[in-house]
Amino acid sequence: MVRIITRPLLSVGHCTQLVQLRAVTPVPFPLPISLASLPLLSFPSHRALFSTTTIAPTLSSAAERVKMSSEGAAVKRQRSNKDVPYNLIYWPGIPGRGEFIRLTLEEAGAEYVDTAQVEGGIDEVMAYVKGEKPDDKTNPPIFAPPILKHGDLVISQTPNILLYLGPRLGLVPGVEDDPDALYKVNELALTALDGLSNEPHDCHHPIASELYYEDQKEEAKRKVEHYVKTRLPKFLGYFERVLNSKASGEGPYLYAGKLSYADLVLFQCLDGLKFMFPKAMAKLNKEGKHSKLFELYDAVGQRPKIKEYLGGPRRQKYSSGLYRYYEEFDIEG
Fold it and tell me: Radius of gyration over alpha carbons of the chain, in Å?
């Protein structure tokens, strides 16, 4: 049964939006800016800082992990109401870095509002980017999307958001069995984001994210040749090693034999790479050196909620975002 939210969750334009979660149809609308040239799409995903603010409440050994002040008081934690839907604040028209977060929410069946699916949602994004949001005593100003708002909590940076969502949505092994699982899953997600997301972005923007692709095509060509021949096989080979390791456990997933958000991140990276470098990815698959990696891709894609999402209207098509197709990029390596 679909739950309908009948109160405004986002301030978009001057209208109160009634958002039907889990069955939202994208609304085509003209954008006031060119997303293809917007530099804020290109900021790299820096490694998340492990903070007692977001992690400690999820750990059974929280008391041991929280440093005490000289007066003996625990570090103050950010309040967040778990009974309200998540708000994903991200650019419309592209999957981008917001897609890693969407897949996590979709797999968990979590209620969320996505500004990319709401007419006028771009206004919410720009309010954060331009620093027009009121100053907040508990949340620092946001630098760039993706942004997650959950109750009183407002955070950004893709890996940081995943670090917050993973334990809450059951996409990290339980702390009772593996107290350090969160750090291991995060390590795998960060590696995928480094080599299979940030580096592909730099293929079409090797000089500066503020410049158009057309202004750096020659440099991009050299970058692509190096990435496809050297860096791409290196990272795929690493994840094949992970999947063949004892820590991977039984089954097709990266860690402890269970699906984690790192698997969803890796799936999206592989999917984007198949769009961006179809010939190179087909060749690597055919060679058979990364069989477990492509088995993971298939396994995640066939999970019921993920499969439904991928075939539905909420899944946005690749265009001029993070993963792009240019004919001159389509080499075998």
Answer: 20
What's the pLDDT score for residue 82?
61
* pLDDT > 70 fraction of the chain, expressed in percent and rounded: 75
Handedness of CA 27, 32, 35, 36 (dihedral sign): positive
pLDDT for res 81: 56
Give SS3 for 252: coil
SS3 state at 19: strand
Segment 283-299 mean pLDDT = 98
Pairwise CA distance, residues 20 & 176, whole Å: 36
CB 109 within 8 A of CB 304: no
Please report, for residues 29, 185, 269, 327, the alpha-carbon distance to residue 116 in angstroms, rounded to integers and kept in the order given.
Answer: 11, 28, 20, 28
Out of 1.10.357.10, 1.10.150.240, 1.20.1050.10, 3.40.1190.20, the CATH code matching 181-329 is 1.20.1050.10
Q: Specify which residues 211 forms β-bridges with.
A: none
Mean pLDDT of the chain: 83
